[in-house]
């Protein structure tokens, strides 16, 4: 489960961010002030940081600089007021990855964090042919072979498989799958996700009843293991 560090002194915003990210399958750690932010970062090793610009104890600029010094790759997304235009330029120069103006849409912020995290994962989006276990899949031709024999997948099953391959060994929630595979414009249910997982297991697992690759993480979602 990916861990998100929220550096924010406003309890209402803390609550909203915790609800948004925990419902999407993330673990959320909160640092309520600038004085403890860097120490919390070092103690928890988060995958991404949400950083409020105006904090008691230490400025957002200083925190951004220090975190970037410890970890050059961890995504840092800054949250601040619309009036902080000059600070926005400065923070991007200091190494922040993105900047979100308050008030913000929690769903948009979640999407931006996911985008930032995907940049850290070697992508197969440009890789047409991929192999695992006894499976060979050609995304360009939308063809899949299992032990050399063709297996028919629907376009949505190909899309879900590609998403899992791009996020292997990472727990993904049902809501994330709905958003990333079906898109915000569609309104399927979590039952739709479970049904597609079942079909992928039936088609690709050696023993669908005891899956090796498409694993259930109870209470959270699924994880693909090569």
Automatic annotation (TrEMBL):
Top-level taxon of origin: Bacteria
Residue positions, PTM 4-aspartylphosphate: 52
Signal peptide annotation: none
Assigned GO CC terms: cytosol; protein-DNA complex
Keywords annotated in UniProt: DNA-binding, Phosphoprotein, Transcription, Transcription regulation, Two-component regulatory system
KW Protein transport (keyword) present: no
InterPro entries xrefs: CheY-like_superfamily, OmpR/PhoB-type_DNA-bd, Sig_transdc_resp-reg_receiver, WalR-like, WH-like_DNA-bd_sf
Domain OmpR/PhoB-type: 127-226
Name of a matching Pfam family: Trans_reg_C
Gene Ontology terms describing biological process: regulation of DNA-templated transcription
DNA-binding region: 127-226
Listed GO MF terms: phosphorelay response regulator activity; transcription cis-regulatory region binding
Annotated Response regulatory domain residues: 3-117
UniProt function note: This protein is a positive regulator for the phosphate regulon. Transcription of this operon is positively regulated by PhoB and PhoR when phosphate is limited.
Protein name: Phosphate regulon transcriptional regulatory protein PhoB
Organism, scientific name: Koribacter versatilis (strain Ellin345)
